[in-house]
Amino acid sequence: MAALADEEPAPVDQHKLSRMIQNREATKAFLEAFSAGDELTEFSFDAARGVGANIGEGRRFTRIPRADLADLSEWASHFPKREGGANATSCIACHNAPIANGAGDVAMNVLVDPAHTGDATRYLERNTLPLFALGIPQRLAEEISTDLYQQRDAAHQVACTSGRASVQLESKGVDYGTLTLKRASQDPCSVDTDSSGLSGIDPDLVIKPFGWKGNHATIRGFTRNAAHNELGLQAVELVGDQDGDFDGVVNELTVGDVTALTVYMAALERPVTKIELADLGLIDLSGSERTDILAGEALFAQTGCASCHTPEMSLRDTTFKEPSEIPGFYDARFPDGSDPNTHGLTVASAITFNLAGDQPNNSIELLDGSIHHLGAMRQNTEGEPVARWYTDFKRHDMGSDLADPDDPLGLGASMFLTRSLAGVGATGPWLHDGRATTLQEAIVSHAGDASDSATAYSHLSESEQTKIVAFLENLTIYKAVEE
Ligand code: HEC
Ligand code: HEC
């Protein structure tokens, strides 16, 4: 699927993709969106296409938030309100470690100032996250939220009949805290909801699997923000036909472009394990390395790591859809106020693919010449497709040392989403600002809600700690070598 990155990608036409779906060419539409997304993430855009923004002082890019440049059309006047950047001319300028679409070195860290404080001591620093198989966390989040909505609605019924209800929210083996509902009036019934007992999630019960802070529900939502803040490419669905970054260019990314980027990242190769690769004959792994990894996996659970980094979750429905039909995971209206349907983005013509099936980038040739698809999700002992994503999709207090210097989103300065460990062996440096140069450093930085686990880790013998690290290094990223 390698795209030549030297020719400017033609704008993707969402209506054309939708027509393909209506003509029962679902696979063709998926592949076309995937390959357009591939080009869009790799391409280095130029000013004529609208990359960058009018920062002020005649500049187009800035790595430092510039709330001080606040005259008409300058950094602080852009809409939607700029958080940082514009930083780069392509997505893979940052997302490139260890391979394209991956994480990033600290040199690519992003500084953001969402509250426009202009105070460098309050800027948030973020290390680049990897983009592999993002359909998996979104689909898991959709199913968890669906479960929680049902549990809330059932409690609502009970509160209407008996005056009060309390429900312990649970999905995929994870406890999301309690909701307490009290009837406020009858005929029609209305209910007051006390959300203070929720654990690690928002009162809307929408699981938000993206961003270090866990504050974005969908790949699409994150992507149009990234395009605006990082590249200064303003999507039509964000600003309509306006020039919100005053660079003289409108219509910088079409609805179809954002769909293509979304589908591409959703369907990128699934992070794998060294054991899996060794079993396929793709890498060498000695018997003792294998034993250490397995011992490390057991210690990972015993040390309490798995209480947040939930190793495995199954999916009832492995079909990824863009747009999704799960409330909280699609745009009823785009941020610019327009109706997605009028742009051709409809549930009836959603681009779909099977997360448990084969992915375009995962087709590899084994030593015996046979073709193997790494794309398939693994199956558990009951034969259900499982994702090994190593997160509970909750935010946790990580203690004051890891806390952000400011809390512009009101989520808690020390609160972070349990970081997925899928591929973690290959995505360093680690932690939200990239401060950890080794996995060991990342682990011992855990505090707050993770204090018990971090203490248990520090009490392990050196050889036991090495085994946990070997287990984490086993979680890696593999790219089929292209001819
Ligand atoms: C200047 C560096 C930089 C550029 C350029 C960049 N990103 Fe990112 N990306 C980041 C950082 C840093 C994060 C983590 C941000 C956070 O959590 O606040 C991130 C996170 C993401 C995520 C969320 C992943 C997850 O699992 O939570 C997505 C999706 C994403 N980027 C897509 C893109 C796309 C698409 C582009 C190009 C349009 C792009 N990025 C360009 C630095 C960059
Ligand atoms: C209370 C929940 C919790 C527990 C328990 C926990 N973690 Fe974490 N872990 C997190 C959160 C949240 C982050 C992200 C923190 C940040 O970036 O500041 C994280 C980040 C990590 C990272 C860095 C990931 C990356 O991509 O940068 C590693 C490695 C890690 N944890 C391993 C472990 C190990 C090993 C244990 C057990 C000794 C453990 N964790 C226990 C919540 C937890």
Structural write-up:
With 483 residues, this protein is of the alpha+beta class. The chain has 3 domains: 14-131 and 218-267, no CATH class; 135-194, no CATH class; 272-318 and 355-476, Orthogonal Bundle (Cytochrome Bc1 Complex, Chain D, domain 2), CATH 1.10.760. Helices cover 28% and strands 13% of the residues. It has helices at 14-22, 26-42, 135-162, 219-231, 236-239, 255-267, 274-279, 287-302, 439-444, 451-458, 462-474; strands spanning 110-112, 124-126, 164-171, 174-185, 190-194, 272-273, 313-314, 319-322, 351-354, 363-365, 371-373, 378-379, 385-387, 395-397, 415-417, 475-476. The strands form 7 sheets. Strands 3-4-5 form a 3-stranded antiparallel beta sheet, with helices on one face. Strands 7-13-12 form a 3-stranded antiparallel beta sheet, with no helix packed on it. It has a two-stranded antiparallel ribbon with strand order 1-2. A hairpin with a 2-residue loop joins β3 (164-171) and β4. The termini are close together. The relative contact order is 0.15. The mean pLDDT is 96. Bound molecules: heme C (2 copies). One heme C is lined by residues 212, 300, 303-305, 307-309, 396, 398, 402, 416, 418-419, 424, 427, 430-432, 439, 442-443, 446, 449-450, 453-454, 457, 468, 472.
